[in-house]
C-alpha cells in the first residue's frame, strides 16, 4: 500500500496570499504547501482519493494521477471539498459515476452545495454517486473503518484503510483525542495526522497532541500534515522524534 500526499497545508496554504511565508523558509521547496488531500493506493493500483481540496487539479497533474476508484470526504469545509469539480475529467471514460462516501451531515451539505455533481444537470451525467459511510465497508480493494472526531464546534471523520496486510490511518482536522479515535486507529502501520502548529489551537491538533495520538495508538510511523506558515520544514524535522516525519506536497510513503 502507498500514500501519496497531494497537499500538506492549512486552509490558506503556504505561502498565504500576499506572499506571506510566516516562519517558513521560502527557499525550501517543501514549505510550499497546497491544501490537504491524499491518495491511498493498494498493490493492485486501485486508488482512493480523500478530500477534493481547492488545489486538486494542480495536485493531480503534479503527481501524474489520471484516475481514482473512489472518493472519501472527511468533512465539508471549503479547503477539503471545493475542488470537487476537478472530478469531472475522471468521469469521462467511465460508464458509471465515481463512488463517493462521507458522513451523513457531510453528504447533506455536499448535495446542497454541489447538486450537479450528484444529480447531473443540463444533459451532463452524474459525476459522483454519493453514499453515507455506513453503507459500505469494502471499497476499491480496501476495507475501511471510520470515526467521528471533534473539530472545534464541528465534526470531521477519521479513516482507517486496510489492504495488502497493512493499515493506514488518516486523521486530519481534529481538536481532541477521544477513546473512539484511539480504538479505531490502534496499531496502524502509518498515521497521517493533523498538526497545524506548535501552540494549541481551538479547532486543530497542535504538535504535542499529534504526537500524543501517535503514542496512544502505537503507530509504527507517523507523518504530520495540515501544517501552517509557522511550521518550517527543516526546523520542525529537527524537533520531531524518531518514527515521525514532516509531510510535504508530493511525498510518497510505502506502507
TrEMBL record:
Residues 47-226 form the Metallo-beta-lactamase domain. Gene3D superfamilies: Ribonuclease Z/Hydroxyacylglutathione hydrolase-like (3.60.15.10). It holds the Pfam family Lactamase_B_2. Signal peptide: none annotated. This is MBL fold metallo-hydrolase. It comes from Qipengyuania gelatinilytica.
Amino acid at each position: 500500500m502507498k500514500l501519496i500526499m497531494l497537499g500538506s497545508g492549512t486552509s490558506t496554504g503556504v505561502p498565504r496570499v500576499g506572499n506571506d511565508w510566516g516562519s517558513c523558509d521560502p527557499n525550501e521547496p517543501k514549505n510550499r504547501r497546497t491544501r490537504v488531500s491524499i491518495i491511498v493506493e493498494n498493490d493492485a493500483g486501485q486508488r482512493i482519493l480523500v478530500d477534493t481540496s481547492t488545489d486538486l487539479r494542480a495536485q493531480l497533474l503534479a503527481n501524474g494521477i489520471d484516475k481514482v476508484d473512489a472518493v472519501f470526504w472527511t468533512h465539508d469545509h471549503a479547503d477539503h471539498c471545493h475542488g470537487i469539480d476537478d472530478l469531472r475529467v475522471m468521469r469521462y471514460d467511465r460508464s458509471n459515476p465515481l463512488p463517493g462516501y462521507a458522513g451523513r451531515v457531510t453528504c447533506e451539505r455536499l448535495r446542497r452545495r454541489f447538486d450537479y455533481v450528484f444529480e447531473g444537470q443540463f444533459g451532463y451525467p452524474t459525476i459522483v454517486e454519493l453514499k453515507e459511510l455506513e453503507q459500505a465497508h469494502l471499497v476499491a480493494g480496501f476495507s475501511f473503518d471510520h470515526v467521528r472526531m471533534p473539530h472545534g464546534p464541528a465534526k470531521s471523520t477519521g479513516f482507517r484503510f486496510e489492504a495488502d496486510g497493512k493499515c493506514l490511518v488518516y486523521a486530519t482536522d481534529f481538536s481532541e483525542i477521544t477513546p473512539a479515535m484511539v480504538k479505531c486507529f490502534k496499531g496502524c502501520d502509518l498515521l497521517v495526522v493533523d498538526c497545524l502548529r506548535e501552540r494549541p489551537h481551538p479547532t486543530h491538533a497542535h504538535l504535542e497532541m499529534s504526537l500524543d495520538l501517535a503514542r496512544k495508538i502505537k503507530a509504527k510511523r507517523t507523518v504530520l500534515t495540515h501544517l501552517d506558515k509557522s511550521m518550517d520544514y527543516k526546523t520542525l524535522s529537527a524537533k520531531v522524534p524518531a518514527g515521525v516525519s514532516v509531510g510535504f506536497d508530493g511525498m510518497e510513503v510505502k506502507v
